[in-house]
Structures are given as C-alpha cells and as structure tokens.
Write a structure and sequence with these properties.
The chain is mainly alpha-helical. The chain has helices at about 1-20, 35-60, 75-100, 110-130. This is Lysozyme inhibitor LprI-like N-terminal domain-containing protein. It comes from Leminorella grimontii. Keywords: Signal.
Amino acid sequence: MKFMLLPAAVLLCFSASIQAETQPEVDCNNAMTTPELNACAEKTFNEADKKLNQAYQALMKTLSQPDEDGLPYSKVKSNLREGQRAWVTFRQKDCDAVFALHSGGTIRSVMYWGCMTDRTSKRTEELTSYIYNE
C-alpha cells in the first residue's frame, strides 16, 4: 500500500504543476474576480520590484569605485547595503500589518500587494535620487 501512495503523490504534484503552467494569463485591464484582482496586484508588485532591483544594482555599480578625497564610496556602499536590508525587513513588516488589518475580508491580499508596490516604488525613487545626487 505504501508503494502505491508514493507514485500517486508524485502524479498529483506533477499534474498540479502542469495545471499552474497552463492557466491563462489574467487580463488585468478587465480583472473582476478576487483571484484575478489578487493576481494583478501581485503582478504589479513584481514589476515594481524588478525596477527597484535595477535601481539598486545601478547604484551599487556607481559606488563601485575607489574612494576619493571626501568621497568614501566604500563606506557609502556598505551603509547602503545594510540600509537596504533593513528597509526590506521594514517593508515586509509594514505590509504584513496592512494584511492583518484587513484579515477579515477578501481585500486583504490586494491591500497587501498594494502596500508592497507603494513602498517599493517610493524606495526606487529614493535609490534613483542617490544615483543623480538629488
């Protein structure tokens, strides 16, 4: 009996994987159901997060130069790396609080992803301003 359960479990996992891969992409311009709205909110966050990572990498590359008189690039880079890690923790905890605040309703995931997107977009602007020294 045990030997029959293992192939069944593997088959179940495989079929779930195939189903997830074959689901059509949601049209976010016409999303109406809760799952569609959640998927679109998460997609928007993923796009914002990609921009954040690009801005962060560009800034770290800019700071990858030898220290000059009055410009301790290595210290700035080290502080920025540490600050970014702390910011990621802040963003997660802050948006977890938003999710918990709305835990009684179906809007909770949209609110969570909206929070993550908002915080991420603002941080992208901050990192971009470092690059241009604004």
